[in-house]
Structure formats: structure tokens, C-alpha cells
Design goal:
By secondary structure, this protein is α/β, with parallel strands linked by helices. It has a domain of about 150 residues: Uracil-DNA Glycosylase, subunit E (3-Layer(aba) Sandwich). The protein contains eight helices and five strands. It has a five-stranded mixed β-sheet. The longest helix has 19 residues. The protein is globular. It starts with 5 loop residues before the first helix and ends with a helix.
């Protein structure tokens, strides 16, 4: 299935009266990462923007999955726990695959991702249709806030069974974000971004949430 022309999306974003001045038109959108085998899991990032301009210029592939680094190691750890391999079974793309002059989460106004989604979301949904049976792993809380609909929780920890007394073992059931409660129109598993997974709650719950995720979608891969 053909995907939208990245140049046309960039032009639409740059022409937007609200966020056009914040679009970095000097850089092409990073290429999606696609494994060599059957795609069984989609990794969805927020957008490729990093604060340092020189580092921004080196981002050629979504989530930098084309080179070694902490984020690639994190995704590989997830894949291994699910019985998948990064090199074969993963497709990675961004909610908004264009660079901005500042990281969107650093501004309260305007809502860069919210405005950008008006131009990008339908293209993203078409892009994901290439892999109709693959669930989405959504990275980071700002992204979750933009894809969760209605009364669906907007904090990653709510899906990981958080309760105020979690340190003493008082936790709630794990959960996923179902098709009818998100704008991507498919099953979503919310995950913290790589730096946050080292926080005590996520570090303690990671292996258990991965076991829950595997049971839901990948048990046959065991």
C-alpha cells in the first residue's frame, strides 16, 4: 500500500497558520524502520525532534533504530521478551514524522502535536494498514495523551497497574488501550519512553507488563 508523500505532509505542516513557523523545513522526515520479516509489532514514536540542532541532523531513521544506542537497546529488550526480533518483526514510525524547531512537549501553547495531527493522522492510519494484525506500542506520555479518546486514561502508569501503595504490592490489573478508545483504530500498549523506564515503578513492572502484552498478542511466539 502506498503511503503519503513526506514532502506533501511537510508542506502542509509548514503552511499551517498556527504551527507553520515551528516546522523545521530544512530537514527531510526520517525514514520508517522496517524489519526484514513478517511485521508483528508497530513501534510508534511521537516525533523525531531533538533539542540539539546538530543531533537533529543525524536522525535519518525513526527512533534512531538504524544505529546502536539506548533506545535501540530498549526496543530490543521488549522484542526479546515478546519472542520477536527487532531486525525482523518491527515497523517503527512517528505520530508526526516531521522535525520542529523545538521539542513539542516543551511548549504548552500551541499544541503542536494536536494541530499537526489534523494534517498527519489520516496518513498515519493508512500507513499502519500495511500491517493489519500488528498492535501498536506507543512510546511516551505526550503521545498517549494525543491518541487516547474519551475517558481513556492519559497516563502510562494507569495501564501498568499503578496505585499509591504499589511499593507494598498493592497494584491494579494491567490494561491496554483498546481499538474503540484510541484514534489509531487498533490495539495500543502504552509504554514509557526509554529514560522513564528506569524509574522505580516502571523498572519493577516492566517484565510483568511485557508478560501481559505477550499473553494478549504474542503467546503463540513463545
Amino acid at each position: 500500500m502506498a503511503t503519503a508523500n513526506p514532502d506533501s505532509i511537510l508542506t502542509a505542516l509548514a503552511s499551517d497558520p498556527t504551527i507553520g513557523g515551528l516546522v523545521d523545513t530544512s530537514l527531510p522526515a526520517p525514514s520508517p524502520f522496517r524489519g526484514s520479516g513478517p511485521i508483528r509489532l508497530i513501534i510508534l514514536g511521537q516525533d523525531p525532534t531533538v533539542k540539539n540542532e546538530q543531533s537533529r541532523k543525524r536522525v535519518a531513521t525513526v527512533l534512531n533504530l538504524d544505529r546502536p544506542g539506548s533506545l535501540r537497546n530498549y526496543i530490543s529488550q521488549i522484542c526479546n521478551a515478546l519472542g520477536l526480533t527487532l531486525e525482523a518483526n518491527i515497523y517503527a514510525t512517528n505520530y508526526v514524522n516531521a522535525f520542529f524547531t523545538v521539542p513539542p512537549a516543551s511548549l504548552k501553547e500551541p499544541d503542536i502535536l494536536g494541530v499537526a495531527a489534523r494534517h498527519c493522522l489520516h496518513h498515519l492510519i493508512d500507513e499502519l494498514r500495511q500491517f493489519p494484525s500488528a498492535p501498536v506500542l506507543a512510546l511516551g506520555e505526550p503521545l498517549l495523551r494525543h491518541i487516547a479518546l474519551g475517558t481513556a486514561p492519559q497516563r502510562v502508569r494507569e495501564y501498568w497497574g499503578f496505585s499509591p501503595n504499589w511499593r507494598s504490592g498493592d497494584t491494579r490489573p494491567f490494561a491496554l488501550l483498546p481499538v474503540q478508545h484510541n484514534s489509531l483504530q487498533r490495539t495500543v500498549f502504552p509504554f514509557p519512553h526509554q529514560p522513564s523506564v528506569n524509574k522505580a515503578f516502571y523498572s519493577k513492572r516492566l517484565s510483568q507488563y511485557l508478560a501481559f502484552m505477550k499473553l494478549q498478542c504474542f503467546n503463540e511466539a513463545a
